[in-house]
Automatic annotation (TrEMBL):
MF (Gene Ontology): oxidoreductase activity, acting on the CH-OH group of donors, NAD or NADP as acceptor
Gene3D superfamilies with a match to the protein in the record: NAD(P)-binding Rossmann-like Domain
Source taxon at top rank: Bacteria
Ranges for region Disordered: 1-64
Membership in a protein family: Belongs to the short-chain dehydrogenases/reductases (SDR) family.
Gene source species: Rhodopseudomonas palustris (strain BisA53)
Record InterPro entries: NAD(P)-bd_dom_sf, Sc_DH/Rdtase_CS, SDR_fam
Record-linked SUPFAM superfamilies: NAD(P)-binding Rossmann-fold domains
Protein name in UniProt: Short-chain dehydrogenase/reductase SDR
Low complexity bias spans: 20-34
Pfam families assigned to the protein according to its UniProt record, in alphabetical order: adh_short_C2
């Protein structure tokens, strides 16, 4: 199966379920917390130096930030679009499918959506022109390259380095590696004007063999991690930061309960991650709180990579 959007991430990084009972091991009994204590990942209250609430205030003041997001239809991409939208950002999405307004939790929807076949690099210049037209010359504050594909064999089995055909290698690299750099190049002026942040979504499979991820997908993610470092070096003089996030097993609608039960015990934190947990890290990387962070690949996998 070939999926675009959340793509390979959905098939490999199966979002995490909460610990039974809604609390993680070691959490305090309700009422025993200090009044100012918060659960991990919870946004601090408004009024402090919180990037989330700062962006909300900026948006209300007419200084709205803009994000271009690929692979927004489900999983990590969908959670990311919702989080940024809740913070007051304008979300411009792109995928090969028409936008489904009934599934969109943020404003704009189909009006801020561009249909792009990321696997056809010859069509990308036209798509980039459409994105630039949507932006209308306004600064671009973030580009998140989340879309990816992870083809399977005819029987649904993992495609290895022994049996992956050349056409599959090419299509995977076009979507997973070539599209991110072409989008960054094509939107360079807008990113420079916005002192923008680029995030490339890599994967834990870029550094280890995975039981589900195919060889072409894994290799493309390793290459994307390398490309992130190159881009960070080249784009930094122009005020553009480039980082990567490498999710592990993340709970998406593709993850079956059986697979989740199989994977969770292999993770040091003994649970699968959630799309929201990944989205929050990306929001940090796109915020002023990460203004001196570039060239990093942040692992979000509950310790699975150690």
């Amino acid at each position: 199966m070939v999926s675009v959007g959340e793509g390979a991430h959905a098939e490999l990084r199966h979002p995490g379920a909460e610990h039974p009972g809604g609390q993680h091991p070691g959490s305090q009994h309700p009422g025993s917390q200090h009044p100012e204590a918060r659960h991990p990942g919870e946004m601090p209250p408004a009024g402090g130096a919180c990037p989330f609430h700062n962006d909300q205030r900026e948006s209300r003041s007419g200084r709205q930030k803009t994000l271009v997001l690929t692979g927004a239809s489900r999983g990590i991409g969908h959670a990311t679009g919702k989080l940024f939208s809740d913070a007051g950002w304008r979300i411009v999405t792109c995928s090969r499918q028409p936008f489904q307004d009934d599934r969109c939790p943020w404003s704009g929807g189909s009006e801020d959506h561009v249909e792009i076949e990321l696997g056809d690099y010859r069509a990308l210049p036209r798509a980039i022109s459409a994105l630039k037209e949507r932006l209308g010359g306004a600064p671009l504050h973030a580009l998140i390259n989340n879309a990816a594909i992870s083809p399977k064999g005819m029987d649904g089995d993992r495609l290895t380095s022994l049996n992956t055909p050349p056409d599959t290698w090419m299509s995977v690299f076009h979507v997973n590696l070539l599209a991110p750099i072409m989008l960054a190049q094509g939107l360079f002026d807008e990113l420079r004007a916005g002192s923008g942040s680029i995030i490339n979504v890599t994967s834990i499979v870029g550094s280890r063999v995975h039981p589900f991820a195919g060889s072409a997908y894994a290799t493309s993610k390793a290459a994307l991690a390398c490309l992130t470092r190159e881009m960070a070096h080249d784009y930094a003089p122009y005020g553009i930061r480039v980082n990567a996030i490498a999710p592990g097993e993340i709970k998406t609608d593709i993850l079956s309960p059986e697979t989740e039960a199989l994977l969770a015990p292999t993770i040091p934190m003994r649970r699968i991650g959630t799309p929201d947990e990944v989205a929050k890290v990306m929001f940090f990387l796109c915020s002023d709180a990460a203004s001196y962070v570039t060239g990093e690949e942040i692992h979000i996998n509950g310790g699975q990579h150690v």
